[in-house]
Amino acid sequence: MAPKLFNVSLRMGSLAIKMLLMLYMGRYLGLYELGTYGLIAAYVALSIPLFGMRLEYTISREIVGLPPSELVIKLRDEFLFYIFNYMFLIVGCLLWVLLLSPDLGLKIIFFTVILCILEGLSTLACSNFVALGRPILSNFIFFLRSSIWVIPAIALGLYDPSFRTVETIIVLWLSGVILSLLMTAYVWRELPWRETLSIPFDTRLLYLNLKKIYPLWISEISMVAAININRFVVEYYLDREFVGIISFYGAFTVAISSLLASGIFAFALPKMITLQKEKAFTELIVLTKSITVHAIISAIMLSLVIGIAIPILGDFMERPEFREHALVLWLMLIATCLTLLTASLQHLSYARHQDWAIWGGNYILLVLSATLNIMMVPIFGFVGVGYSAVLCAIIHGVWRVYSAFTYHHKSNKHQ
C-alpha cells in the first residue's frame, strides 16, 4: 500500500508544482512570454510521439524478464534509433519552428530543439522502467524532469526580477530533464554496455516493430496535435498574448484530466481488463457506469472551483485579461467535462482490445480540432477556441459511445 501511495504522491506532487508554476508565470511574466512558453510546451509535447514513433510500445513488452546481457542490446538499439531519428529530423524541426513561430528567437529555438530531444529520451526511459517492474523509479524520474526545477525557477524570480523570463524557465526545465537522464544513466551503469559494441544493430527487427506500431504512432500524434493546435491557430489569427491566456487556461483543464486519470481511471483500468478476460461482461458494464458517475461528478466539482477562482485570481495577479475572457475558460471547462463523461468508454474499448476505435477517435479528433479552430477563430475571435472545444468534445464523445455500443451489439449477436 505504501509504495502505491508514494507513487500517487509523486504524480500529484508534480501536478501541484506545475500549477504553482503557471500561477507564478501568470503573475510575474507578461502574457507574451506566457504565450511563448505555451508554444514551446506544445512543440515539446508533439515532438515526443512525432519523432519517437512510439517504438517503446513494442520494446516494452520484449524487455520484460530478459537477462542483463539481452536487455542491454534491446535498450541500446532503442536509444540508438531515437538518437538517430532525432538527429535526422532536427533540420525539419528547426524549419518547422521557424516557419510557424519565426519570432521565437534563435536562442529559444535552440533550447526548444534540445528539449524535444532530451524529453523524448527521458520519456523513453520512464516507459522502460515501468516495463521492468520499477514504476516508482519511473515516476521519480518523471518528477525530476517535470517538477523539481520549478521551485528554483520561482525562487530566482522572486529574488531578482531579472530572472522573470521565459529563458530562465526553459534553461531550468532543461536542467531538470538532464538530471533525469543522469539518474537513468546511474541506475543502468552496471549493465554490460561494452559488450554491445561488437553486436550489430538489428535493422530487420526494428522495421518489423515499426510496421506494427504505425497506426498507434499516427494516433498519438493526432491526439497531442488536437490538444495543442488551438495555440497555433490563435498565434496565426490573433497574437501571442492570446496564446498566453489559452495556455494558462489550458494548464488547469489539463490538470483536471490528469487528476482524474491518476485518481480514478488508473485504478479502474486493471480491473476492467481483468473482468473482460474473465468474460464478466455484466460486472464490466456496472464498473464502467460507476467510473463514469465518479468521473463526471469530480470533473464538475473541480470545474466549478476553477471556473470561479481563475477570474478572481486574474484581478489578484493584476491580469484582468483572465477575467475578461472567462467565457473561453468556461467553455473549455465544459468541453473537459464532456470529454471525461465518455472517458470511461475509451478505457472500456481498451479493455476490449478495440484499438482501432481508439485510434480512429484520435484521427477524428485532430481533423475536428483543426477544422473547427481554423473556421471559428477568424469568425468569432478568441471565444471561437471555446466553441471549437465544446463541439469537438461532443462529436468525439458520440464516436466513443458508438464504438462502445456497436461492440456490445456484436458480442450479443455472437453469443
Protein architecture, described:
The protein has helices at residues 2-28, 31-52, 56-62, 68-100, 106-131, 135-146, 150-159, 166-187, 203-237, 240-277, 281-316, 321-324, 326-341, 343-351, 355-380, 383-414. It has 415 residues and is an all-alpha fold. It folds into two domains: 1-201, no CATH class; 241-415, no CATH class. Helix 1 (2-28) packs parallel to helix 7, helix 2 (31-52) packs parallel to helix 10 and helix 10 packs across helix 14 (343-351). It is globular. The two termini are 40 Å apart.
Mean pLDDT: 86
Work out the number of β strands: 0
How many domains is the backbone divided into?
A: 2
Major sheet: none
Gross geometry: globular
Measured as a percent range, the helix fraction is over 70%
Evaluate the radius of gyration.
22 Å
Structural class: mainly alpha
Beta-strand percent range? under 5%
State the end-to-end CA separation: 40 Å
What is the helix tally?
16
Order of helices and strands: HHHHHHHHHHHHHHHH
